[in-house]
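Example 3.2
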Amino acid sequence: MEFSVHIPFVELLGFELQKFEGGEAEIAFAPRPEHENSFNVVHGGASMTLLDVVMAHAARSVEPAMGCVTIEMKTSFMRAARGPLLARGKLLHRSATMAFTEGSIFDAQGQLCAHATGTFKFVPRLPVGKGSNTLNTLKTD
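Structure, written as tokens:
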């Protein structure tokens, strides 16, 4: 399954969308050495990005034509993350403009590595296609 929009940072990290429906999302991540910190485990920033993306996709799965932006996020780290990893996101509540979500990262043994909650705002998508460079398509005065 492919991401429905072009997200350069997600492509750089190598995230793979596996589920995107009914208020749920799953993303696989096979971290490479450049995603590690000085302890040779997945860097917290990479884990937080994974949680942010899986929660946003859980929110968007109920209205894929809309975009969403992160308003706030709280993350707790339970154990060092070593790949391959699976992130699961779930939409907990939705209003007309906001989504309240949670996400978790599991290692290959099914152990919980990190958990987050996040609030997202639904926003209209810009009229650009996948693979377009948004900066080159916006008009400036």
